[in-house]
Specification:
Rossmann fold; 6-stranded parallel sheet; about 20% strand; alpha/beta
Length: about 150
Amino acid sequence: MASSPQKKKSIVICEDQRLFRQLLSHYILHHPDFVVVGEASDGQYALEVCDRHKPDIVLLDLGLPGNLHGFDILKHVKKTHPECRVMIISADDNPATLQKAVRLGADGYVEKEAPIETVCHAIYKVAEGEPYFSPRVEELLNSTRKSGNRV
């Protein structure tokens, strides 16, 4: 009897910049372990898409337009779908922002300037249940911890 193929991990992309969102979606399309089940370009729609699809992974930009900040989506997803992994992809590398994302339960954080290969590697790590923070983000978090700064 043949073994059944492994189920693809479902992904929702929450990103307001259309080009970046489409490039991410296109890149993920070529990876056999993942399927993009939804996309959102603002905070309110991000909540709706996440609630509707209950994805395995949410790729979340913190700077979504509208009344809801990325942190609101992160908190909501972690509360209503605790098994869902949330990876932040953001241009914001402020140490206070990074610490808050970790405190609210982000499973990963990659800056938008990272190469697409780094983003893909991060998605795989997060999908496997491992946290992933890009080397730049780790460096910022570690320097903040060493200096004793807390938010």
